[in-house]
Write a structure and sequence with these properties.
Length: about 250
């Protein structure tokens, strides 16, 4: 008697739905050309006297240039919060444009007269279901927080990062629910209305100044991205090379 596998005709096998088919169909339904990823990083301004509006304008121009240079790519959405000494940046787009942003961030760090002196990548969330932001924008926050250099805590770096990310997700959800006509006013009054959803400057400073494997510098990410993935099996270290008579032997 023929087994179940033998009874399946080639035409039936070709009509089976694969996981890739499901993912592509979902992306078409959501009008997604590529998988969307979310990048969150923090930066330190090169000096307290930096023109923060110039930094926001630079990124606004750079992001528009990326969209022009890569036609047909996913849109870049997100929010850049520029504090008196630090930056918190959330970006939602495809993986290739995230790489371009990180490469440019590394280039800025190397420049002697750069607006940014150092940065740390907190997380890159892959294949997010929905965007939290309708477009990309920046806001300068004139929030004075004393004693940020003396901040100390018994919390682990992982917990601090998770708490900061939760704040940003809740902030994005809050802005996502705002009517489009009221969105600009909501973003201009973040400190007054949702101050608890804004990351603390002392925590951002603490994460930037400490070295921990929970975070990655732009250079480390670029090196990891470009480094070839080589895997050696124990059998590869044996000589002479063993002969495999069967494919799964």
């Amino acid at each position: 008697m023929a087994s179940e596998e033998e009874r399946v005709s080639p035409s039936q096998d070709s009509n089976r739905t694969t996981l890739l088919d499901v993912i592509e169909e979902r992306n078409r339904h959501l009008n997604k050309k590529y998988l969307i990823h979310r990048l969150v990083y923090i930066s330190k301004l090169s000096s307290p006297g930096v023109d923060r509006t110039a930094l926001g304008t630079y990124y606004d121009t750079f992001i528009k240039k990326l969209q022009t240079d890569f036609p047909g790519s996913e849109a870049i959405t997100g929010l850049m919060l520029i504090y008196p000494k630090h930056v918190v940046h959330v970006v939602e787009t495809s993986s290739d444009l995230i790489l371009k942003l990180i490469e440019d961030l590394h280039r800025l760090e190397k420049e002697t007269e750069s607006l940014v002196s150092k940065s740390k990548i907190l997380v890159i969330s892959h294949d997010i279901n929905t965007r939290l932001y309708h477009f990309w924008s920046f806001r300068t926050l004139d929030i004075v927080e004393h004693g940020i250099e003396s901040f100390d805590t018994k919390e682990t770096f992982e917990n601090l990062i998770v708490e900061l990310l939760i704040q940003l997700l809740k902030l994005g959800a809050y802005l996502h629910k705002q009517p489009k006509l009221n969105l600009k006013n909501a973003m201009d009054s973040l400190h007054e209305k949702v101050s608890d959803l804004l990351p603390q400057q002392s925590v951002v400073h603490y994460l930037l100044e400490e070295n921990d494997s929970s975070m990655m510098t732009p250079l480390e990410f670029i090196d990891l991205y470009r480094k070839p993935f080589d895997t050696y099996l124990e059998s590869d270290m044996v000589w002479p090379i063993p002969t495999r008579l069967f494919p799964y032997n």
